[in-house]
Every structure is written in structure tokens, then in C-alpha cells.
Automatic annotation (TrEMBL):
This is Glutamate racemase. The lineage of its organism: Bacteria, Bacillati, Actinomycetota, Actinomycetes, Kitasatosporales. The keyword Isomerase applies. The keyword Transmembrane does not apply. One of its GO terms (molecular function) is glutamate racemase activity. Keywords: Isomerase. One of its GO terms (biological process) is peptidoglycan biosynthetic process. InterPro entries: Asp/Glu/hydantoin_racemase, Asp/Glu_race, Asp/Glu_racemase_AS_1.
């Protein structure tokens, strides 16, 4: 079994690590294009062109399912990728976890890129899944780029700025960009500092595990965390086989996948 993932860069690491946890025997194909990152500021047409290139490179390795591990690409390019690759290859998009966050009652904050914050897409998810729940949309300029480059100072500054715009009574926080899941604990700590004294710890809602589970289902299998860790990792950088870079290896998710990739070679 083989699961492929695409993103501009490190945003695919969280979902890839989730697949690895759920099925240690699954082969992974990580297809990214770091030189084109970030995708958010690009036009929908340009973004779709880059996402399709990553998807085609991954599809050439004949995976059983493909995860678009990027919220922005899922908004703008998912339809085009599915039109080209399905039904032969199931394609799974990434949706912010607004529904489960709202189900817990709120108040909810959604941290997302400036391009996604306030977009018709995100507002539609709020309307459909969070009616009657207090929701605050929080743009996080520079955070995805800082995470991509594992720039600790820039990450800290971007997280502090977003936390300052987050209501003190928030109970649920949706990580609306796959890059943010790599610094979830730093986000949790920053939000804890602005929370109302005595409030319960904020609950973070990411998409990685849900997306990984859906990809396995679409591939015709089920999670089996106890399977032998025989899965191999192939890294594609702009379509060519390579290795995870130093920034990727700065995260636990990247190190776990990098060790498998190194063992393969």
C-alpha cells in the first residue's frame, strides 16, 4: 500500500506522520515544490498549476490514494486535481476542523493564512458547521513561511501576534493551515498566556489524523498502528527524488519520516 501527499513544502509532514502512525507498513510519497512556497499569495490559476505538477509527479509512483495536504490548494486546486486523476486515483482534500471544534460549543478561533481568513470558502464552512457558535477568524501573516523555514524567532513572533488577536475566552482553536500543526504546542502555550484566568486549557483541532484516516479508507484499508514498520518514504522535490531538508528535520514529524527515508537509501 502506498499513500502520496502533496504540498508546497513542510505542510505535508503532519499528515504524512499521521499516516505513518496509523499504518507503519504503508509506503509514502512526499511531493512538494519548496521553491514555489508559499502558495497562498499566488493566483488560483498559478497555484493550481503548481499543485497539479506536484500531484502528477506523485501519481507517477502509482499510489493508492493522494492527499492534498494543504488547505489553500484544497480550496483552489482540488477540483482540477480530481478531474485529472480520479477515478483511478482517489484524491483527498484537507478541510479545517471547524465542524468538530464547533460541536464542542465554542467560543472558537480559526487561525489561518491571510488568504484563507475571511474567504468565501472559510465563511461557508462556518455557516454550515458553526451556526450559533461564537467564531473568531484570526489571520496569521508570516506564520506558514516561518514554519516552512523552521525560523524559531519568526515563528515565535507570528504566534504571539496571532495570540494577541485571539479572544481570551476561546475554548477551541482550529489550525486552518497544515503548517501550523507542526508548531501546535507553541501555539497552545501562547494562547494559554492570553486565556481568562481559570479557564480550561484550549483544545486544538488539526486535520492530519482525520485526513490520514480518510486516505486509508479510500485506499481500501483500515488503520493498523501495530503493523510492522516496513513502509518506505520517497521524497520528491519539484518532481525529482531527493531528501527532506534541514528545516523539515527540525520537526519531530520530519525526523521520523527522514529516518525512514535515510534507511531506504
Amino acid at each position: 500500500m502506498k499513500i502520496a501527499l502533496i504540498d508546497s513544502g513542510n505542510g505535508l509532514l503532519a499528515a504524512a506522520a499521521a499516516v505513518r502512525r496509523l499504518r507503519p507498513d504503508a509506503d509514502l510519497v512526499l511531493s512538494s515544490d519548496p521553491a514555489s512556497m508559499p502558495w497562498g499569495p499566488r493566483t488560483p490559476e498559478d497555484l493550481t498549476r503548481h499543485a497539479l505538477a506536484c500531484a502528477r509527479a506523485a501519481a507517477a509512483h502509482r499510489p493508492d490514494a493522494l492527499i492534498v495536504a494543504c488547505n489553500t490548494a484544497s480550496v483552489h486546486a482540488l477540483e482540477a486535481i480530481r478531474a485529472e486523476l480520479e477515478p483511478g486515483l482517489p484524491v483527498i482534500g484537507t478541510v479545517p476542523a471547524i465542524k468538530p471544534a464547533a460541536a464542542d460549543g465554542g467560543p472558537v478561533a480559526i487561525w489561518a493564512t491571510p488568504a484563507t481568513t475571511g474567504s468565501p470558502y472559510q465563511r461557508g464552512l462556518i455557516r454550515d458547521f458553526a451556526a450559533g457558535v461564537e467564531v473568531t477568524e484570526v489571520p496569521c501573516p508570516g506564520l506558514a513561511d516561518a514554519v516552512e523555514h523552521a525560523d524559531a524567532d519568526a515563528i515565535a513572533a507570528a504566534v504571539r501576534a496571532a495570540a494577541a488577536n485571539t479572544p481570551a475566552d476561546v475554548r477551541g482553536l482550529v489550525l486552518g493551515c497544515t503548517h501550523y500543526e507542526l508548531v501546535a504546542e507553541r501555539i497552545r502555550a501562547a494562547v494559554a498566556e492570553i486565556q481568562t484566568p481559570g479557564a480550561p486549557p484550549v483544545e486544538l483541532y488539526g486535520s492530519a489524523t482525520a485526513v490520514a484516516t480518510q486516505a486509508l479508507r479510500r485506499a481500501g484499508t483500515e488503520p493498523d498502528p501495530g503493523a510492522a514498520p516496513t513502509g518506505r518514504v520517497t521524497v520528491l522535490l519539484t518532481g525529482r527524488e531527493g531528501e527532506l531538508g534541514a528545516a523539515s528535520l527540525g520537526y519531530a514529524e520530519g525526523r521520523s519520516l527522514g529516518a525512514v527515508s535515510a534507511a531506504r537509501s
